[in-house]
Design a protein that fits this description.
Blueprint: H1 23-33, H2 35-38, E1 39-42, E2 47-50, H3 58-70, E3 92-94, H4 102-109, E4 116-118, H5 128-136, H6 139-144, E5 147-149, E6 174-176, H7 184-190, E7 198-200, E8 221-223, H8 234-243, E9 249-251, E10 277-279, H9 288-296, E11 303-305, E12 324-326, H10 331-340, H11 345-361, H12 368-380, H13 386-400, H14 410-426, H15 431-441, H16 444-449, H17 454-465, H18 471-485, H19 490-497, H20 500-515, H21 521-533, H22 538-546, H23 549-559, H24 564-578, H25 590-598, H26 607-621, H27 632-641, H28 670-687, H29 689-695, H30 698-711
Helix pairs in contact: 1-3, 4-5, 10-11, 10-12, 11-13, 12-13, 12-14, 13-15, 14-15, 14-17, 15-18, 17-18, 18-21, 19-22, 20-21, 21-24, 23-24, 24-26, 26-28, 28-29
InterPro entries: ARM-like, ARM-type_fold, LRR_dom_sf, ZER1-like_C, Zyg-11_UBL_adapter
Organism: Astyanax mexicanus (Blind cave fish)
Family: Belongs to the zyg-11 family.
């Protein structure tokens, strides 16, 4: 029987802004993650039904389908759970960008009394005519639907009769058909709707707006940007707009930012008397003075869209007060642009460019709201746009650099990091995007305290590392990997260590840096990453040996005799190999052991180097070590010199004391036992109470008691 998996989506609150999510959302997310366990297959189409389901409140049903859509688990099979209208009753549905067929949509959703339906940019072959046919097939749905968004869908399917009857949806108040092939005849049909008060026809094939006059008495919102097929004079256009005297919102912004089109509407003070929101972004021929007069004549104005107009620098248009403004002169204007132009790639990218310039020039302090807009509005919405991702990742760096990250809620930072990883995966061949993402990740605060999938991050950064030889990119990659690996579980490290391309790539970097005698962060981070990848992971140690790591590390010991930090990292990894009983035989090289023996003691040898040198030798000379086939005198000398003399403190991290315990067995040579006790003492002194508690584990305590009884 399959068990239900509960994903811990909530992390420890480290910031007052990190409020816990609602219990209802956590429960719904758990259901979404366990649909295969909670459902059974019904019917020939393979659709799912809940094995058992209580009658849910309509709000929870809405939350369930919307969360399924957000998490990417809504498809032709899973949408079948909503065929049960007795238990799940839907009213407000947003399934934008999901993949759904016309049949599944009709069977699962059209039997509900839907009031709001957003199917914008739905993937697959479903069309506007399919959606209309499904809605019109059910009287209750047809009579209840008030809001419908179908942005970006094809109009007609191969089986449709070529006619779209929006006029049959008599209760419809809001309709969005942006970026469809809507034509003049269809617009005329739409404009016969008696209650329609909000219409979006942006980017359509409409050539004449005259049918809008049929909505003159009740149209309150018109969004009509990007009407590049419009075949009307400016005079005719203004004549129609001026008669829509109930308009509260008008968007006639211009995405073609390289044009010199002027917007004379602002000079007509008598038109649109109740206007509250006007977007003229992308137009020229506008001045701050004209805008101020226009706004003063309409006391209810609450929004102006002025991005890419060259205006908005005056205090009156700052966007700080009741009048919200999209523009490029301050963070507030940029935030408003990011929020409002989320779906419009050209304007969004322009807003991101201005935000990047502002954050480069000003000391802005932490801006979590702006960061959220960049991540959700820019990076997620336009995940396939290299232009947006390039500027957005640069903005993320400016908004999280240095101490700025400390002022951002950890959960938000975690979402941002996951998006950065996704962006790296989507654009593997775009070096600057990769570099921007790595710059964002090179933060101790983010890498150590922020909740995100570190295992996935390591694999993605290593994939990037394998594609580029740029030294800056290499340095950042190995730094990120080195720190992240130290935060993974033993199981995750073992899985990474078994990935040959990871070990091989890191060894290649070590080889490159060592071949030129470099002593730099790239070399040291790569050595640290390899050290961590082999810690208590036999698979990683085996992969290291398989890729000729031992030969390389033997050379490093001699080449970097003058650098104790490098020697410590090299010996630390060799000690990891020596802890694996079946691999010890491969370390039995007389020249190597003699060199390690020379590092065991001496006035110039640092305690960290001595410690790991002793660890390698202790494992190889222990009772569980390989059969000694080398010089017997060397074996005798090693055992005599394993007795430690000094107890200095050095930087050391251990996941557990497990590797020491076999060396404490009473059957071990005294030198091996003494080295193990010395090692435990050093770790305890280094790491304090945490390690003292670990040392009190039953097995460790019993091993040491046995050693005391044997000694006394």
């Amino acid at each position: 029987m399959q068990s239900i998996k509960i994903q811990h989506t909530y992390q420890t609150i480290n910031n007052k802004s990190d409020a816990p999510p609602a219990l209802s959302r956590l429960c719904v997310e758990c259901v979404c993650g366990n649909l295969p366990v909670l459902c059974r297959v019904c019917g020939e189409d393979g659709s799912l039904r809940f094995c058992w389901c209580p009658v849910l409140p309509q709000e929870l049903s809405d939350l369930l389908i919307n969360t399924m859509a957000q998490q990417g688990v809504l498809d032709d099979r899973t949408v079948g759970v909503f065929r049960s209208t007795e238990c799940l009753r839907l009213k407000r549905v947003c399934i934008r960008s999901c993949r759904l067929s016309a049949h599944s949509f009709s069977q699962a959703l059209c039997s509900h009394r839907l009031q709001e339906l957003n199917m914008s940019r739905l993937q697959g072959d479903i069309t506007v005519s399919d959606v209309l046919q499904g809605i019109l097939s059910n009287q209750h749905c047809r009579q209840s639907l008030q809001r419908l968004a179908l942005t970006g869908l094809d109009l007609l399917s191969s089986s449709s009769d070529g006619r779209l009857r929006f006029s049959s949806l008599r209760a419809l108040r809001t309709l969005g058909l942006a970026w469809t092939r809507l034509d003049d005849a269809m617009l005329e049909d739409i404009c016969s709707l008696p209650l329609l008060d909000s219409l979006d026809i942006s980017g359509t094939a409409v050539t004449d707006l005259t049918p809008l006059l049929n909505l003159q008495s009740h149209l309150r919102s018109l969004t009509a940007h990007g009407l590049h097929h419009l075949d009307m004079s400016t005079t005719s256009l203004l004549s129609i707009l001026s008669k829509l005297d109930q308009l509260r919102h008008l968007d006639i912004s211009n995405d073609r930012l390289d044009t010199d089109s002027e917007c004379p509407l602002l000079e007509r003070l008598e038109v649109l008397p109740v206007l509250e929101s006007l977007d003229v972004s992308g137009w020229s021929g506008i001045s701050d003075g004209v805008l101020e007069v226009f706004v003063e004549a309409r006391r209810g104005m609450r929004f102006l869209g002025l991005l890419a107009t060259g205006v908005g620098a005056s205090d009156f248009l700052s966007g700080e007060g009741n009048l919200k403004v999209t523009g490029e002169y301050n963070i507030t204007q940029c935030n408003e642009a990011l929020r409002r132009y989320r779906e419009r790639e050209v304007l969004l990218q322009r807003a991101l460019l201005h935000l990047h310039n502002l954050t480069n020039q000003q000391d802005i302090g932490p801006q979590p709201h702006t960061l959220q807009l960049v991540c959700a509005g820019g990076m997620q919405t336009h995940s396939e746009s290299a232009g947006v991702q390039l500027v957005a990742t640069a903005c993320v760096f400016n908004l999280t650099n240095l101490e700025l990250a400390m002022g951002v809620p950890n959960r938000l930072l975690g979402n941002v990091v996951q998006q950065l990883i996704s962006t790296m995966r989507s654009f593997p061949n775009h070096q600057q995007i990769q570099k921007n993402c790595l710059l964002c990740l090179c933060s101790d605060h983010i890498l150590q305290t922020v909740p995100f999938n570190r295992y996935e991050a390591v694999k993605q950064v290593m994939s990037c590392l394998s594609l580029y030889e740029d030294q800056t990119l290499q340095r950042m990659s190995v730094a990120v990997v080195s720190l992240l690996v130290s935060k993974l579980s033993v199981e995750e490290v073992g899985q990474l260590g078994a990935e040959e391309f990871i070990i091989k790539q890191l060894l290649s970097i070590v080889q490159q840096r060592a071949s030129v005698g470099a002593v730099d962060p790239t070399l040291k981070f790569a050595l640290s990453a390899l050290w961590n990848l082999t810690d208590q992971t036999p698979s990683g140690c085996s992969m290291f040996l398989h890729n000729h790591g031992l030969e390389l590390y033997s050379e490093l010991l001699e080449t970097y005799y003058f650098d104790s930090s490098i020697q410590q990292k090299v010996l630390g990894l060799l000690n990891n190999v020596a802890e694996v009983e079946e691999l010890r035989e491969q370390l039995m090289e007389e020249d190597l052991l003699e060199y390690i023996l020379a590092l065991l003691q001496g006035p110039q040898v640092e305690v960290g180097v001595s410690y790991f040198a002793g660890g390698v030798l202790a494992h190889l000379t222990s009772r569980t070590g390989p059969e000694w086939t080398l010089d017997p005198q060397l074996h005798h000398t090693i055992l005599n010199r394993l007795v430690p003399t000094d107890n200095f403190i050095f930087s050391l991290f251990f996941r557990s004391f497990q590797p020491f315990y076999p060396l404490l067995d009473h059957s071990q040579p005294s030198g091996v036992q003494l080295w193990a006790l010395w090692g435990i003492q050093l770790v305890i002194r280094q790491n304090g109470e945490r390690e003292r508690q670990t040392e009190r584990q039953t097995e460790g305590r019993e091993r040491q008691r046995e050693r005391q009884r044997e000694r006394y």
